Amino acid sequence: MPTHAASSACVCACPTFAMTDQPVAPAPVFARILAFPRLVALAAGAITALGQPPFGWVWAALLGLFVGFELWRGTTRVWQATGVGWAFGAGYFTASLSWIISPFMVDVARDGWMAPFALLGMGAGMALFWAAAFGLARWFGRAGGLALVICWTGAEVLRSYVLTGFPWGLVGYIWLDWGLDQLSALVGPFGLTALTFVLVWLLQEALHARRRRNLFLVLLAGGLVAGAGFGVWRGGFAPQTEGRPVIRLVQPNATQRQKWDPEWVPVFFRRQLEFTATAADPMPDLVVWPETAVPYLLDRSGSALEMISDAAAGRPVVVGIQRREGARAFNSLVLLGRGGVAEQVYDKAHLVPFGEYIPFGSLAARLGLQGFAARDGYGYSPGPGPRVLPIDGLGKAMPLICYEAIFPQEVNAAPERPDWLLQITNDAWFGRFSGPYQHLAQARFRAIEQGLPMVRVANTGVSAMIGPRGRILKSLPLGQAGFLDARLPKPLPATLYSQLGDGPLFLFLAFGAVYLLFARFRNSD
Question: Whose CA is closest to 28, among 208, 172, 227?
Fold first, then answer.
């Protein structure tokens, strides 16, 4: 991330450049707003969330972030800044994660009462990271808005790792389809988030500065033009698909209420067989079914796998299926060869806490709570981790099951560079409004970051062939049963982010932390 690192180095090398943002009396335009800072912060956070799918309103997100910076600027005490940061985060996460109530609506009579507690608890919990960022930035005092940039970026990184991590809805995702999304091929999503904060900070400085206003405006305009120019240039190339393999994406549209209903199970299974067997010219080189698409355990599937292979006329088929190994259960992706033989097996490694397993389940088992122990068959056990699967005629695919595609650092941790990414998922859990589209957006960012095409097959949609620059080449809409055949684009050369990962960003944060400490204690003398 040379552009980011260079600009950050310039900032850190000049202490007076970052010292313009003292806790000062608010500008008249914000005088009344600051009378109710936490309430305004709550609303500003919710407005910022409108930058995420399905809205994608970048202007709203930038407005909300600007108000957040202004509210922070108006605080004079750490506890004030912490409260503002928490309220801002609560508004943002409660709005952007509203889809989280959907799993509880599958069985409303039993689970519906938990939905508001889950949403409010998740929003309040995620907001703690932003509260810490705002409070810590104010503690650094004289370092000004740069302190908030560094601390806020650090908070976004931390929430992506702490307690297995949850990097859903990173601020940088607001740039999808706006050109600047292509910068993630250089700096990754955390770096793009940092650059977003830098842009807002520069705008704030330009409005408040007296002597250096033109300098800040030039930096702001130059950064936007450079970033947009790179995005237009990189995103303007058409993916190479001529003569490439054809992959069939099968979308059965099994709603979560019906998916495991004994009356509907054979309906969805036959539907997938019919989609697999449908003739086309050319016939697909590979067929892909979504997560848990096979309603039987791998070791108890009987003739089901052979039926799938027969429907595909012996061509390879990737299916989502559950399997058992002793007392342990796995959420798996299996490559079927002729006769339904399982030639490759990948077990999901990054499981959803409380959804696919109970944290500390083994301890619970020792206390006699057998139902909470994954090893006793009441949840999934994790697989060994990222890997690639060689598939004849299609190169090496990196499998990702559902939730795994939201972790950029884990996609970047593949033992070797794959030729394409393969995500199977069951987004029926995410409802029909924002969740599936946000999940799709994150999958598109993984393609941009790696410069690799992605085959994304979702139970209820959106299934898509995604190009190596993150553009959707073909797709099946949400809530529609069907299949599509699409050519697998050629991968691009390795991106800067795929080679360096988040190392440059971590270096920036480390130097930034040292600078902030130096600035604080130097000015406290």
Answer: 208
Rounded percentage of the chain residues whose pLDDT exceeds 70: 89
215, 302: one domain: no
Other residues' Cβ atoms within 10 Å of the Cβ of residue 432: 16
| Average model confidence (pLDDT) across the chain | 90
Mean pLDDT value of segment 263-290: 97
The helix (run of H) or strand (run of E) holding residue 471 is: none
Q: Is residue 227 part of a domain?
A: yes
265 and 174 assigned to the same domain? no
Helix (H) or strand (E) holding 61: helix 58-73
**Res. 154 pLDDT band, cuts 50 70 90:** very high
Distance, in Å, from the CA atom of 321 to the CA atom of 345, rounded to the nearest integer, reads 10
Identify the DSSP state of 245.
P
Residues 224 and 256 in one domain: no
421 and 286 both lie in a single domain: yes
- Are 494 and 507 a contacting pair, CB within 8 Å? no
Q: How far, in Å, CA of 513 to CA of 497, rounded?
A: 23
Residues marked as catalytic: 291, 348, 402
pLDDT in tens, 210-235: 777 778 888 888 888 899 899 989 98
Q: Which of 423, 323, 342, 429 is nearest to 381 (CA)?
A: 323
pLDDT of the residue at 150: 97
- 233 and 343 fall within a common domain: no
Do residues 190 and 267 share a domain? Answer: no
d(CA 512, CA 235): 32
Q: Are 264 and 307 found together in one domain?
A: yes
One-letter amino acid of 362: S
Position 372 in a domain: no
Amino acid at residue number 354: F
Domain that holds residue 324: 246-350+385-489
Question: Is residue 415 exposed (0-12), middle (13-18) or buried (19+ Cβ within 10 Å)?
Answer: exposed
